Amino acid sequence: MSETTASLLPGQDVLETAETWAREGRLTALATVIETWGSAPRPVGSHLVIDSDGQFEGSVSGGCVEGAVITEALDVIESRVPKILEFGVADETAWRVGLSCGGRIRVYVEPLGGATL
Known about the structure:
- By secondary structure, this protein is of the alpha+beta class.
- It has one domain (3-112).
- 32% of the residues lie in helices and 28% in strands.
- It contains four helices and five strands, in the order H-H-E-E-E-H-E-H-E.
- The chain has helices at residues 3-7, 12-23, 66-79, 92-97, and strands at residues 28-37, 47-51, 56-58, 83-88, 104-112.
- A five-stranded antiparallel beta sheet has the order 3-2-1-5-4, sandwiched between helices.
- A hairpin with a 4-residue loop joins strand 2 and strand 3 (56-58).
- The longest helix is centred in the middle third of the chain and has 14 residues, at 66-79.
- It is globular and about 40 Å long.
- The protein starts with a helix and ends in a 5-residue tail after the last strand.
- It comes from Roseibium aestuarii.
- Residues 21-88 form the XdhC- CoxI domain.
- InterPro entries: MoCofactor_Util/Proc (IPR052698), XdhC_CoxI (IPR003777).
- Pfam families: XdhC_CoxI (PF02625).
C-alpha cells in the first residue's frame, strides 16, 4: 500500500472519485453503508460510487450485494430520489443477491453530480 493510500480514511478514495466524476458532469450516485448487524462484510461508512453508465468504484459488501445496489443506484440517478436499501439473511432477497455471510446491512443511496434539479 502506498503512503498516500495508507493516509486516506476508509472510503476517501471513493469520495475523491465521486468528486472527480461530478466535476466532469457525470450523473452519479453514492451508496454508503449506514448500519450493519452480525457479520456484515463492510463497516459503516463504506462507499460505492456509481455513474449512469454503470461504472463503479468501491464496495459496500465485498461483492455480496453490489449488483443489486448498482441496479438501485441507476434508478436513483434517473429519479434523483434517494433510497435506503436493506439486505440480510432474514430478508428473502438476501439469498437471491448472495448475502449469505450471516450479516445484514443497510445502505443509503443518494444522487450526486450532474445537472441540478
